[in-house]
Amino acid sequence: MQNLDVTKLKTLLEKYSVSLEDFISHFNFDGDVNIDDIILYLENVKQDKENETLQRKENINKERKDYLDKMIKQTQEKNREILPLTNICEDNDCLYIEMVIPKLNKENINITIEDQYLKVKGKYECSDMKDRKYHQYEFKLIDFKKEILLGDFLDLESVTSKYKDGILSINIKKQIRPSIKKEIIIK
Q1: How far apart are CA 57 and CA 169, in angstroms?
Q2: By percentage, how much of the chain surpasses pLDDT 90?
Q3: DSSP readout, 103-161?
Q4: Residue 84: is the preceding peptide bond cis (ω within 30°)?
Q5: pLDDT at 176 exceeding the cut of 70
Q6: Which secondary structure element, helix H or strand E, spans residue 100, and what is its range?
Q7: Engineered SS bond to 121: which of 93, 110, 135, 172, CB 3.0-4.6 Å?
Q8: Geometric angle at alpha carbon 142, from 169 and 87, rounded to 5°
């Protein structure tokens, strides 16, 4: 090696975070080697490391994004079962169910009773929301389904519902069951 001071080489290797072993094993010592060749080599090594680090960061960011997208999707799926917020109460004559369902046309709400379950489904058609630029986005209008187990004490033929001001109200009359008194014999 001509024109090369060993202490200057060590300083350059430290500056570029390259070990002497890596330098010796990868650097081509054919012909005359001068300091400019070494600096060019070290610049390339530095650029390769930066590219590798950048690629690693991009991969990590993609993995994070994929993970967050997956978590959001799972949360939305869970929320489809939790939402809408629901109050259930009763008096002597009736069971009352109220659900908060904002910005939904009643035509997009489906209410059925099947196997002692009240099933409420809602489908949002929000094409106008896609064209908007939001500055704050705290609630999301997502399709939902909610199932509520009904007792056998209800008259399922008497179900009524109405939708007003974003509240779905469902009323189900109670059946009058005869009072039964029976003594059970233990065997």
Answers
A1: 51
A2: 20
A3: T--GGGEEEEEETTEEEEEE----HHHHT---S--------EEEEEEPPTTB-GGG-EE
A4: yes
A5: yes
A6: strand 94-100
A7: 110
A8: 30
CA distance 32 to 70: 57
Count up the domains in the chain and report the number: 2
Structure tokens at 145: 């389904």
Per-residue confidence at 2, pLDDT binned at 50, 70, 90? Answer: very low
In this structure, are 95 and 160 located in the same domain? yes
**Could you tell me if 7 and 13 are in contact, meaning their C-beta atoms sit under 8 angstroms apart?**
no
CA 82-84-86 angle, to 5 degrees, is: 90
Residues 81 and 61: their CA atoms lie apart, in Å, by: 30
The domain in which residue 52 lies consists of 6-74
Q: Is residue 34 part of a domain?
A: yes
Domain boundary among 74, 95, 112: 74
- If 0-12 CB within 10 Å is exposed, 13-18 middle and 19+ buried, where does residue 86 land? middle
Q: Residue 71: is its pLDDT beyond 80?
A: no
- pLDDT-derived band at 96 (thresholds 50, 70, 90) equals very high
DSSP secondary structure code for residue 1 in this structure: -
CA 170 to chain centre: 31
List pLDDT tens digits, range 122-156: 988 766 666 777 777 777 777 888 888 887 788 88
